[in-house]
Design brief:
Structural class: alpha/beta
Oligomer: single chain
Radius of gyration: 17 Å
Number of strands: 11
CATH architecture: 3-Layer(aba) Sandwich
Strand content: 35-45%
CATH superfamily: Vaccinia Virus protein VP39
Helix content: 10-25%
Strand order of the largest sheet: 7-6-5-8-9-11-10
Distance between the termini: 54 Å
């Protein structure tokens, strides 16, 4: 029997107090890891399906091997861990604004993400993803570097942002800057907690050659029913 509740880490950040906690759910008989920003739940190990699908859907259309991938937002590590499960991936840059979140993985606080930090293909970049896109790029050691895929999971949705400073990314100009960090036939994939947004779909289609929304359904053990998230996927021209 594990500890009923334990706060593993806590830190005040520019966007609020972020914390990692572990609790025992007696009804489900599992250890649950949760991330909170102030009093708001950001993610839970009970619901990893859409984060996993973000990586799978984002990498699925890519041809060839030796893929270079960038992940925006580390969190509990499900997206990044799934990227590494694809043996075509040669390198992965993970851009995370909160250094403490990177430290969770380096310290091994998340057993289901074991091996992520130690994998030689992984490099953590402590930076604001949105500022990096607007500025020098996602790899500070190689300004202007381009990737085969960029996978983003930071905000709740394009309309429900964690911080107002992110808003400029969800515009035609912001997405064009992101597209410039992708190689020809590269993929941008975005997780959203909301249903598909037609206006955002149209915005993606105005920047990329092809844009689709995938609704990812998953069982919700708390309600006993089904929940859903959205993964947007868009491609650059060949």
């Amino acid at each position: 029997m594990g500890t009923r509740f334990e706060e593993l880490a806590w830190r005040e950040t520019p966007i609020g107090a972020i914390s990692l906690r572990r609790r025992r759910d007696p009804a489900l008989d599992v250890e649950v890891y949760e991330v909170k920003l102030d009093d708001e739940f950001l993610m839970s190990s009970l619901f990893p399906v859409a984060e996993i699908e973000l990586a799978r859907l984002g990498l699925a259309p890519l041809a060839g091997r030796e893929l270079d991938v960038a992940v925006g937002g580390l969190g509990l590590g499900y997206t990044a861990r799934t990227v590494l499960e694809d043996d075509r991936v040669a390198s992965m840059v993970v851009v995370e604004a909160v250094e403490d979140v990177i430290d969770w993985h380096r310290r091994g606080l998340l057993p289901f993400a074991a091996g992520l930090a130690a994998d030689p293909r992984t490099r953590f970049v402590s930076a604001d993803f949105f500022a990096a896109v607007a500025g020098p790029g996602l790899d500070p050691d190689r300004p202007g570097r381009r990737f085969d895929a960029v996978l983003l999971d930071v905000d709740h949705s394009p309309r429900n942002l964690l911080h107002p400073s992110h808003a400029g990314f969800y515009t035609r100009a912001g997405l064009r800057r992101l597209a410039a960090s992708l190689r020809p036939e590269g993929v941008f994939a975005l997780w959203s907690d909301d249903p598909p947004d037609r206006a955002f779909e149209d915005l993606l289609a105005s920047v990329f050659t092809h844009a689709v929304s995938h609704v990812v359904h998953f069982s919700n053990p708390l309600t006993g029913g089904e929940s859903a998230n959205t993964v947007y996927r868009a491609h650059t021209p060949s």
